[in-house]
């Protein structure tokens, strides 16, 4: 079936706030975006029918993103100590639907808050995994640990900012990797859904990363990328509105 390739218009339009009311508010902070170029033929089979691999200048990218989740709560509700602050680490690839909407397909999302794991699995149909996680240090040198339940070895990251902070420009690799406002997920009977997040454009800079791990990729059943990350980006924080899932039209 033919499908529309994402254009600059599609990528900029994804930033627009959707109609209706958000269901959640949260802050993402101390974000580390690590990316490797990967053979597109390795990633295409991971996408369900109706989604297509999104490429930057003909190349596919795999991301590992550890960060802090803060002030997570339903709209109109206060944040709750013990529930609203936790850690998350996701493994992600980039895709688009038949209409050209660009977004993210998550291979996994490790999290150390059991209630958040179960809610995200059921409400957003995302592949969350229970994990033991912790972090320390300050904004200039965060040390971050993740051990998924059932695994033996721990993924460790030591990172911080390393340069000028700016916004990404359309057409750049940084824009392609960072400016993602749509997630795709799969429900019963292989039905596809999209969910929108809305936040100001990321203010990013290069990251220094003294220690990094590809273990989460291995945990997801993929070969670990060789060599250091080819892109390492840092974002201090961003405040986010989360909107409900919407079912995508069936693929013909």
From TrEMBL:
Note the PANTHER family from the entry. Answer: DUF2071 DOMAIN-CONTAINING PROTEIN, DUF2071 FAMILY PROTEIN
Gene3D superfamilies linked: Acetoacetate decarboxylase-like
One Pfam entry for this protein is DUF2071
Q: Which organism is it from?
A: Luteolibacter soli
InterPro entries according to UniProt: ADC_dom_sf (IPR023375), DUF2071 (IPR018644)
Query: What is the name listed in the Swiss-Prot or TrEMBL entry for this protein?
Result: DUF2071 domain-containing protein
């Amino acid at each position: 079936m033919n499908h529309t390739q994402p254009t600059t218009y599609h990528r900029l339009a994804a930033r627009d706030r959707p109609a209706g009311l958000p269901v959640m508010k949260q802050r993402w902070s101390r974000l580390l975006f690590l990316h490797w170029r990967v053979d597109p033929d390795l990633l295409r089979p991971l996408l369900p029918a109706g989604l297509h691999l999104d490429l930057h200048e003909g190349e596919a990218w795999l991301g590992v993103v550890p960060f802090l989740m803060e002030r997570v709560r339903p709209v109109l509700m206060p944040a709750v100590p013990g529930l609203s602050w936790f850690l998350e680490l996701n493994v992600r690839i980039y895709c688009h639907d038949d209409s050209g909407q660009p977004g993210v397909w998550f291979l996994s999302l490790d999290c150390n808050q059991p209630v958040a794991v179960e809610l995200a699995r059921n409400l957003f149909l995302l592949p969350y995994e229970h994990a033991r996680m912790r972090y320390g240090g300050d904004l200039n040198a965060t040390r971050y640990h993740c051990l998924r339940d059932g695994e033996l070895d721990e993924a460790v990251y030591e990172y911080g900012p390393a340069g000028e902070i700016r916004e990404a420009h359309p057409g750049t690799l940084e824009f392609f990797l960072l400016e993602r406002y749509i997630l795709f997920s799969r429900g019963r009977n292989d039905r596809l859904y999209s969910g929108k997040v809305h936040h100001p454009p990321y203010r990013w800079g290069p990251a220094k990363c003294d220690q990094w791990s590809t273990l989460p990729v291995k945990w997801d059943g993929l070969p670990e990328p060789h060599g250091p990350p080819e892109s390492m980006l840092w974002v201090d924080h961003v405040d986010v509105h989360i909107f409900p899932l919407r079912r995508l039209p069936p693929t013909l």
